[in-house]
């Protein structure tokens, strides 16, 4: 539905001007996004259905060092080391439907 709508909004006709191909889920793609809804990861507000995400604070200098290291690794195309560093920096992130699941703790 989304593809058809976008094609139409661009002034084309679906399946005539642009063919829609169903490819299925690709490695690393998700069918949904996680929503922060549990009380452990959020703080209440005055409205009972609105909550504020608890966000971890990073030291700016350390974050810059990690960003520089990620850039260095990416330029060398050292993917496994990049993924390990990203997962170390953001340990909550878990890969799903991805070859990088092996780096999850």
TrEMBL record:
Domain Polysaccharide biosynthesis protein CapD-like as annotated: residue spans: 2-53
Superkingdom per UniProt: Bacteria
InterPro entries named among the record's database cross-references: Polysac_CapD-like, Polysaccharide_Synthase-Rel
Signal peptide: none
Protein name according to UniProt: Polysaccharide biosynthesis protein
